[in-house]
Amino acid sequence: MQNIVERLLNGDRRALARMVTLIESEAPQVQRHLAELHQHTGNAHIIGVTGSPGAGKSTLVTQLVRELRRREHKIGVIAIDPTSPFSGGAILGDRIRMMELAGDPNVFIRSMASRGSLGGLAASTHDVVRAMDAAGYDTIIIETVGTGQAEVEVMRTAQTVLVVCAPGMGDEVQAIKAGILEIADIFVVSKMDKPGADQTVAELAMLLSLDQNRRQVQWRIPIIKTSAFKAQGLDLLADAIQQHYAYLTESGMIGQRAQRQVRSEIQTLVLHSVTRALKAQVSEEEWSQLIVEVTTRQHTPYDIAQALLTRLGLQNI
Amino acid sequence: MQNIVERLLNGDRRALARMVTLIESEAPQVQRHLAELHQHTGNAHIIGVTGSPGAGKSTLVTQLVRELRRREHKIGVIAIDPTSPFSGGAILGDRIRMMELAGDPNVFIRSMASRGSLGGLAASTHDVVRAMDAAGYDTIIIETVGTGQAEVEVMRTAQTVLVVCAPGMGDEVQAIKAGILEIADIFVVSKMDKPGADQTVAELAMLLSLDQNRRQVQWRIPIIKTSAFKAQGLDLLADAIQQHYAYLTESGMIGQRAQRQVRSEIQTLVLHSVTRALKAQVSEEEWSQLIVEVTTRQHTPYDIAQALLTRLGLQNI
User: Fold this and answer.
1) pTM value?
2) Which CATH code of 1.10.150.120, 3.40.50.2000, 3.40.50.300, 3.40.225.10 fits the domain covering B40-253?
């Protein structure tokens, strides 16, 4: 009987599924497993897909996976669901379409809940990518709902970031301005058969022409139109993704991205440990007591934070 | 010559403006000032306004401030701009309208950039609210762009959360499902004169009827239609805000919210100190070295994170 790490490295899907569950539940043995997997990683191309809710990301990912399968890739998909337990069901429903792919032994799909602390999600996404990479998936797609700061954090794990927008949503281009533009490598205008698609493309092109001067890079962000209904544009999109990967490797940018990603991962791990330590050392009764001291103005939140830092051993900060 | 804290407590606007700048720049003396201000706080009603980009939040806030001024409130506004340095200008432009209010001595408006670390924004927002509260502003409005996780964190500072959506944006209700519903106290359908407004109201009502069973609270979330163009609905909105505040105080819920807010503030302060300590103790050269050790697979990110924790003094976590 091999252990889970050996089975995962041999491509056993059940071992991979189990590892992802261990990562999500923050099982104590998981860091040891991940450390063993670490030396077997670094081979996958990691693609991020983001955009506003309703932009058609899940459908796009499904069709992109089909196109990449035609090109003989072995593909892992991490679909990150929003925090709300209430909405969970509905949005998971949108992903049922993706399940069509689940019969293919070269496709591994996993949903992850985004509940939990800020930063916690980015940390577990890193870990799941690491597990899939070690299991031999050469292309890993991370799909997030929304374009908030947590999603941008998650996207930093990716090497190639696709930002998807659908025409006719009113303010799709304004929404893109707010934060996500800096990390975009490829724009996708989904639903190209809807009215307004060409206008959205024109607005994006204008936005990019303003931005291109600021970025001092060689990569020109392409704008790809796709239609899920007619299954059009997916070959162009897959080409653009491969061109971006070639650009990253040839320019040496892939090393820079890896460095940025490793740094953010280490910082996230440190903060996550502190959060865990705080949880372990301060009981609910003590929290109630501390909070009363603040709300009755006996102590300030700054005093309490300082006292907790001292208790954790951080005397010199 | 009085010090900045005394002048702020006497209602000096320039002292307040200076304090906000100190908070934003994380000046070393600011925590001492804030600790002095702490005992003078707890009097303001804190209102959060959130919703997708383009929903008309800035216009709504401007008109809401006018309505609350008619009711003799003294109002502070914190407008949080998105991270991107590129988009900053454009979105600040939308806020020029708000500047009409700036001549009123009983209105204090301040924009804050949302750049910086996760959690950092929530911490500085807490601090700015504290400064405005101590300076005698009885109503403080926090406006955020977007509905991501960072914005939800910021909204936890508020006692009454308004979620704004405009009809005709395609997926406004779906966007609301994803995370923000749990923290909403009042829904606002802006642009009530646009086609589709009644349908948006109906969809929100349906969403709430599903959600109401899950929430075991007495407050029924109202849906208020407003028109910035015709300046309609603002009186109803101001009434709903005051009713919600009365509900919070009479039911004792206001204490529960304060507790939740204090706990999240203390945790944020602890993590923020750790981030600062990491920055101070690890030089750029050392980061480069550590990152190379990870990318060449000599060490895992877990090893490095553990070593850094040990260096910060956190041996037992």
Assistant:
1) 0.73
2) 3.40.50.300
